[in-house]
């Protein structure tokens, strides 16, 4: 238990930066509700800026249509990429906020330079393996069937690789890199893990097909990613797991990503009627027991992996 909830070096550094700003006799950092509200504020500002390209295109289409010009449009894949690529703005906003408002370095958000490429590759392998295990369970339980698809090509897949890299990094920076470390400056690591994981799940409350089990699974994913962050002492592994999880789900196996429309993919997965408890139904595999089992196993295994030894130690 001591190893599980030991304080990562980057959180130690975040606490030290908060202590420098705290008044004598006062606890460092902000209370949890303010931390959540600030996270929402920066997030919504970033979302607003990220939507600009779509708004510009919508205006251009309206003008062209009004003047009787050439009608043009985007495929569902094009629209999805226009939604995903601008999300890098949100990541930048959180880095800037942490640096200039909270007076802490990007490193305290998990952007550790040493060995970052190897850490990311480890995350890629883990993300593919974990989600593929969920697909395997779905196949063994008869909840899904998989067939080849003809609507994918290498260029589209590569473009999606970049899009999901940005999207996975953005959500991990918001929830694990920023919110969790911000909470951990004042509160215990377990509390920071739970709050940021529930916050992550709540970000998907407006997604089609959301329900109790999908919400539980999203919270479990948040806990799993938080444990990866804590154990590896960086943002790279959990970001890679998140990005590859979405990539292989949507563009390899052809499964709806968190209730969104199916995308072009190399395979097409069909959900068997009557097996919604396992395959997740309208929300996709993330809403079923296949993913529940995998994420619980992932959390347990991650807990058993020895954490990275820190240069400085601090007990909860």
Can you give a write-up of this model?
By secondary structure, the chain is mainly α. The chain has one domain (11-304). It is 62% helix and 3% strand. It contains 12 helices and 2 strands. It has helices spanning 9-21, 32-50, 52-66, 76-84, 88-100, 116-140, 154-184, 189-202, 212-232, 236-252, 276-279, 289-304; strands at residues 144-148, 267-271. A two-stranded antiparallel sheet has the order 1-2. Helix 2 runs antiparallel to helix 7 (154-184), helix 6 packs across helix 12 (289-304) and helix 7 crosses helix 9 (212-232). Residues 311-316 have low confidence and may be disordered.
At a glance:
This protein is mainly α. It has helices at residues 9-21, 32-50, 52-66, 76-84, 88-100, 116-140, 154-184, 189-202, 212-232, 236-252, 276-279, 289-304, and strands spanning 144-148, 267-271.
Low-confidence stretches: 311-316
Helical content, roughly? 55-70%
Query: Mean of the pLDDT scores?
Result: 90
Biggest sheet descriptor: 2 strands, antiparallel
Radius of gyration, whole Å: 20 Å
User: Strand share of the residues?
Assistant: under 5%
Helix/sheet category = mainly alpha
Number of strands: 2
> What spatial order of strands do you see in the largest sheet?
1-2
Bulk shape: globular
N-to-C SSE series? HHHHHHEHHHHEHH
Distinct helical segment count = 12
Distance between the ends = 11 Å
The tally of domains stands at: 1
């Amino acid at each position: 238990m001591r190893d599980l909830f030991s304080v990562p070096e980057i959180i130690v550094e975040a606490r030290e930066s908060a202590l420098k700003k705290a008044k004598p006799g006062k606890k460092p950092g902000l209370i949890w509700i303010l931390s959540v509200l600030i996270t929402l504020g920066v997030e919504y500002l970033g979302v607003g800026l990220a939507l600009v390209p779509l708004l510009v295109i919508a205006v251009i289409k309206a003008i062209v249509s009004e003047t009787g010009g050439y009608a043009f449009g985007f495929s569902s894949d094009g629209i999805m990429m226009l939604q995903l690529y601008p999300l890098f703005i949100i990541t930048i906003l959180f880095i800037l906020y942490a640096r200039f408002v909270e007076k802490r370095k990007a490193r305290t958000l998990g952007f550790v330079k040493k060995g970052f490429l190897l850490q990311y590759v480890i995350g890629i392998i883990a993300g593919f393996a974990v989600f593929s295990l969920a697909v395997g369970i779905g196949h063994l339980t008869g909840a899904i069937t998989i067939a080849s698809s003809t609507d994918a090509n290498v260029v589209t897949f590569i473009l999606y690789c970049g899009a999901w890299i940005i999207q996975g990094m953005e959500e991990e920076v918001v929830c694990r890199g920023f919110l969790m470390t911000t909470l951990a400056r004042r509160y215990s690591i377990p509390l920071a893990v739970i709050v940021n994981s529930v916050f992550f799940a709540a970000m998907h409350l407006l997604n089609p097909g959301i329900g109790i089990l999908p919400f539980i699974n999203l919270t479990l994913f948040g806990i799993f990613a938080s444990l990866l962050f804590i154990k590896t002492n960086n943002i790279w592994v959990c970001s890679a797991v998140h990005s590859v999880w979405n990539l292989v789900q949507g563009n390899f196996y052809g499964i709806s990503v968190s209730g969104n429309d199916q995308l072009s993919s190399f395979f097409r997965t069909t959900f068997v009627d009557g097996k919604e408890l396992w395959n997740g139904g309208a929300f996709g595999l993330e809403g079923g027991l296949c993913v529940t089992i995998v994420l619980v196993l992932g959390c347990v295994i991650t807990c058993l992996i020895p954490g990275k030894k820190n240069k400085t130690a601090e007990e909860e």
